[in-house]
Every structure is written in structure tokens, then in C-alpha cells.
From TrEMBL:
Similarity comment text for this entry: Belongs to the cytochrome c oxidase subunit 6B family.
Lineage: Eukaryota, Fungi, Dikarya, Basidiomycota, Agaricomycotina
Keyword Transferase: no
Cysteines engaged in disulfide bonds, as pairs: C30-C62, C40-C51
SUPFAM superfamilies: Cytochrome c oxidase subunit h (SSF47694)
Record has RNA-binding as a keyword: no
GO cellular component: mitochondrion; respiratory chain complex IV
Listed name of the protein: Cytochrome c oxidase subunit
Location within or outside the cell: Mitochondrion
Gene Ontology biological process terms, A to Z: mitochondrial electron transport, cytochrome c to oxygen
Keywords assigned by UniProt, alphabetized: Disulfide bond, Mitochondrion
Protein purpose: Component of the cytochrome c oxidase, the last enzyme in the mitochondrial electron transport chain which drives oxidative phosphorylation.
Pfam families: COX6B (PF02297)
Amino acid sequence: MSDSDLSSKYVLQTAGFDARFPNTNQTRHCFQNYTDYFKCVAAKGDDFAPCKQFKRAYNSLCPSQYISLTIGKWDDQRENGTFPASLEP
């Protein structure tokens, strides 16, 4: 497959600039996008396309090791009702 075939098949995106987090450690930005995603899903459902932007953002901003360790912990906390932030829309 040539490079042009690959570039037309896949679109690479990352999270855009967020004025709430200029020139800072992206941990808070990662956490905020994670909570925004689940708030959006609670309000609009899994199939609502704009919610997926939050998921792409936290997957892009959070380091891969952070995703496997911390986000796994957050998922467990959400399921147990002990997550430290409100996920109500």
C-alpha cells in the first residue's frame, strides 16, 4: 500500500488547544476530558458523536502508561461509585 493510500484511509488527530490549560502539565486536562466524556455519555448516550471527541482527547493527552494504570483505576472507581468527581450531566 502506498503512502497516499494510507493517508486517504486514516486521519490522525490529536486534542486541540484548550485555553483552560495553557502551558501546564496535561494531567488535569486528561482528567477533565475523561470526566467530560462520561458526563456526555450519561446525557446523550454512547452513540452521540461529539462525546467521542472527549474520548479521543483523553486517549491522546494521557500517556499510555497513565491510561493503563490510572484510567483503569478511574474505571473501577466509577463502577464502584467512588469516583472523586461528579459524572452527572
